[in-house]
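User: Hello, can you help with two protein structures?

Assistant: Certainly.
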Amino acid sequence: MGARPPKDPARHRIPEPSEYEVSIYAQDEFRLVAAIVLVSPSNKDRTANRKTFVNKCEALLKKEVCVTIVDVVTSRRANLYGELLDELGAQRTAISRSAIYAATCRGRRSGLHWWLEAWEHELVVGAALPTLPLWLSEDLLVPLKLEAAYEETCRSYGFANMQ
């Protein structure tokens, strides 16, 4: 006979999860190779939330996981890609100061050194979303067609042209 649960558990209301992520694993092994992370308003609203987001991306990059960050949140000004560059000790770019952006990053080891490679795009409200590289291995990439994914999502949910 199994143990009975306690009669009166402590219950705490917690915020809704704010992670929106697609994880991609290698076909031949259970190893994460890429993550597409959509920034939410709550990722940008408080210092602690921004730090958690940046630390997660940094940890993935240091495990040589390709990370794509897509930030279309216009209600808050923080740039999490820029904060990631700061955390890694990399130089900020113009796009790392933009309000909305998309960036693909990958960390690579070369001998004793660790390198960050980044492909970045500033987004413009009403303009088409970019295509970014999504690295599945050191020498294999697939195009991540953000505009096509957006349009297909709108069609599948029955939304009219969202432009």
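That covers the first. Now for the second protein you mentioned:
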Amino acid sequence: MKRSMYMIISVFALSLTMLGAVWAAESKEEQSLQKEAAAIHTTAGNTQGEKVVIQRLEKDFNVSNDRIQGLRDQKLGYGEIAIVLSLSQKMPGGITDANIQQVMTMRQGPPTMGWGEIAKKLGTKLGPAISQVKNVNKEISREMKYEAKGDKEHMEKHQEQHEEMHKESMGHEGMGGGQGASHGKDK
């Protein structure tokens, strides 16, 4: 009897240890997902960033701005929207109103569920959603750098054009204005 009791307690303790390890792994995955979601939302915090984030969500998830704004109206950050769209995309039928609502109902409860628990209930793993949201964030960061570089190049080019026009107008003024002379050639 002592032996069987010892065996039951050992199995129970081992089960708790394994369950704790699984919970910890889900927690790390959820933390990683939340980190990526927060980065996306932070980027969207400025006007230029918001435009880039919306365009990236539209492109990567093949959704309209109206769908994104509908989720914003439900008090979701842009990173959370990426998570909802990613999980919905993996459901039968893809990103539909019904699938989004199902994910939102599980997230907002009652009872409220974590992203890992939602993925499990949907019969998927959280890893692919993490990868997808991470890729969205990476593309947003790349586009923001491009936008910043493009703006700088645009400003420099505009400044060069302005200086060139100024030089031309200074040269033409000394000749009695260049516009009349060029129109004369056309006649």
